């Protein structure tokens, strides 16, 4: 493949992968302005973020089979067109309910770009090239939460919150044109592929019966829900309670993203000396201490802007160590159903994330307590899953060993 074509393919696939993170983070600095314009509360505005998470959770389960049956580009056209319509539809909203529904539709559309970009890397690049391309995509996805709220903060401060959706809509139009004219169809449609619910559900049930998947997928998803609690409540906590400006909030969000990205990079280094299991155990225990201290400070009204940033950064740093290791261990038992396992884990993450963002929105108006409360519950639940899950895994291994001995 010529270097120029190689560069354009990675650029397009990276842009497709970044659409979801930009859609989540770019409008966060506008929560207070949206609430004022729509004559509602920030808590109800944050439900538009929850509906987006629900849409992503559902969409990941839908697009996998569609991409296998119809090829990569047709579902991508559909998803981008749906996203564009929903984005420009957000300009005409007159109440928060309309925004919540349109964000759900927008999420269903954006799922096509996330799932298709990963599938097309496997299709278009060799086994030797794929890890480098995936690394580039992961870097784009990781950097997006740093850029999106900062850019969104300046855009909202200059033009208003609706221009975020104008930007996202035109971003998707450019991606659609690039997909049509520059992206090759990388997978031949398979008319024989069944879209009936029963075989698809059977695959998911087989995955769920694997104790190693269930244990580590739950750990990954439940701890990740703490991240969603932070994302959902951070506009109110930073801009309303601590009175940070829109642009200042964007920079704080970018700074906190560095903690998550940095620790996930450090993880790849320390794996030379420690196993994934060991890293998860110690990181999860550290995260428990951090989240409980965060909650104690919040309950006693000891928090300030700087201590809040320190606690969140510490939580995210632990998450950067837990999540990649948990994901690797969850998918390790699969070769045949790796796609179903990956989709199911993504759906669990987003589904629990949506639940956490709803929970944290209930009483977030003038309180810092809901964020650390959800984080503490998530971490303690994950630690419980770890100890119970390891017993289940050991029981299965012993049973398999005894069966072979017989």
From TrEMBL:
<dbReference type="InterPro" id="IPR036259">
    <property type="entry name" value="MFS_trans_sf"/>
</dbReference>
<feature type="transmembrane region" description="Helical">
    <location>
        <begin position="163"/>
        <end position="181"/>
    </location>
</feature>
<dbReference type="InterPro" id="IPR011701">
    <property type="entry name" value="MFS"/>
</dbReference>
<keyword id="KW-1003">Cell membrane</keyword>
<keyword id="KW-1133">Transmembrane helix</keyword>
<dbReference type="InterPro" id="IPR004812">
    <property type="entry name" value="Efflux_drug-R_Bcr/CmlA"/>
</dbReference>
<dbReference type="GO" id="GO:1990961">
    <property type="term" value="P:xenobiotic detoxification by transmembrane export across the plasma membrane"/>
</dbReference>
<keyword id="KW-0472">Membrane</keyword>
<dbReference type="GO" id="GO:0005886">
    <property type="term" value="C:plasma membrane"/>
</dbReference>
<keyword id="KW-0812">Transmembrane</keyword>
<comment type="similarity">
    <text>Belongs to the major facilitator superfamily. Bcr/CmlA family.</text>
</comment>
<feature type="transmembrane region" description="Helical">
    <location>
        <begin position="282"/>
        <end position="303"/>
    </location>
</feature>
<feature type="transmembrane region" description="Helical">
    <location>
        <begin position="368"/>
        <end position="389"/>
    </location>
</feature>
<dbReference type="GO" id="GO:0042910">
    <property type="term" value="F:xenobiotic transmembrane transporter activity"/>
</dbReference>
<dbReference type="InterPro" id="IPR020846">
    <property type="entry name" value="MFS_dom"/>
</dbReference>
<dbReference type="GO" id="GO:0015385">
    <property type="term" value="F:sodium:proton antiporter activity"/>
</dbReference>
<feature type="transmembrane region" description="Helical">
    <location>
        <begin position="75"/>
        <end position="94"/>
    </location>
</feature>
<keyword id="KW-0813">Transport</keyword>
<protein>
    <submittedName>
        <fullName>Bcr/CflA family efflux MFS transporter</fullName>
    </submittedName>
</protein>
<feature type="transmembrane region" description="Helical">
    <location>
        <begin position="7"/>
        <end position="24"/>
    </location>
</feature>
<feature type="transmembrane region" description="Helical">
    <location>
        <begin position="251"/>
        <end position="270"/>
    </location>
</feature>
<feature type="domain" description="Major facilitator superfamily (MFS) profile">
    <location>
        <begin position="9"/>
        <end position="393"/>
    </location>
</feature>
<feature type="transmembrane region" description="Helical">
    <location>
        <begin position="44"/>
        <end position="63"/>
    </location>
</feature>
<feature type="transmembrane region" description="Helical">
    <location>
        <begin position="100"/>
        <end position="121"/>
    </location>
</feature>
<feature type="transmembrane region" description="Helical">
    <location>
        <begin position="133"/>
        <end position="157"/>
    </location>
</feature>
<dbReference type="Pfam" id="PF07690">
    <property type="entry name" value="MFS_1"/>
</dbReference>
<feature type="transmembrane region" description="Helical">
    <location>
        <begin position="309"/>
        <end position="331"/>
    </location>
</feature>
<feature type="transmembrane region" description="Helical">
    <location>
        <begin position="213"/>
        <end position="231"/>
    </location>
</feature>
């Amino acid at each position: 493949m010529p270097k120029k074509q190689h560069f354009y393919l990675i650029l397009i696939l990276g842009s497709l992968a970044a659409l979801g993170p930009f859609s989540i983070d770019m409008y966060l600095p506008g929560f207070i302005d949206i609430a004022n314009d729509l004559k509602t509360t920030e808590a109800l505005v944050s439900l538009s973020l929850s509906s987006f998470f629900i849409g992503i959770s559902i969409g990941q389960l839908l697009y996998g089979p569609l991409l296998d049956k119809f090829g990569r580009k047709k579902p991508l056209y559909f998803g981008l067109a749906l996203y564009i319509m929903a984005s420009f539809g957000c300009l005409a909203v007159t109440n928060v309910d309309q925004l919540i529904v349109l964000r759900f539709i927008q999420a269903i559309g954006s799922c096509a770009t996330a799932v298709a970009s990963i599938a097309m890397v496997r299709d278009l690049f060799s086994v030797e090239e794929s890890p480098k391309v995936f690394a580039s995509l992961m870097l784009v996805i990781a950097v997006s939460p740093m850029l999106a709220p900062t850019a969104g903060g300046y855009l909202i401060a200059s033009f208003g919150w609706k221009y975020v959706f104008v930007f996202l809509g035109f971003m998707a139009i450019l991606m659609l044109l690039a997909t049509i004219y520059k992206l090759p169809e990388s997978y031949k449609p398979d008319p024989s592929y069944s879209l009936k619910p029963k075989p698809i559900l059977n695959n998911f049930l087989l995955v769920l019966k694997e104790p190693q998947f269930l244990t580590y997928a739950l750990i990954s998803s439940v701890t990740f829900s703490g991240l969603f609690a932070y994302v959902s409540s951070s506009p109110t906590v930073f801009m309303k309670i601590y009175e940070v400006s829109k642009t200042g909030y964007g920079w704080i969000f970018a700074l906190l993203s560095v903690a998550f990205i940095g620790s996930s990079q450090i993880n790849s280094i320390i794996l030379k000396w420690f196993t994934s299991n060991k890293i998860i155990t110690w990181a999860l225990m550290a995260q428990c201490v951090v989240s409980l201290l965060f909650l104690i400070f919040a309950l006693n009204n000891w928090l300030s802007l700087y201590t809040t940033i320190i606690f969140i950064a510490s939580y995210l740093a632990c998450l950067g160590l837990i999540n990649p290791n948990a994901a690797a261990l969850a998918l390790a038992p699969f070769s045949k159903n790796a796609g179903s396992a990956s989709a199911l884990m993504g759906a669990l993450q987003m589904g629990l994330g949506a639940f956490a963002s709803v929970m944290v929105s209930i009483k977030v108006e003038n309180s810092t307590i809901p964020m650390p409360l959800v984080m503490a519950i998530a971490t303690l639940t994950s630690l419980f899953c770890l100890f119970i899950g390891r017993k289940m895994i050991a029981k299965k291994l012993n049973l398999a060993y005894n069966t072979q001995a017989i």
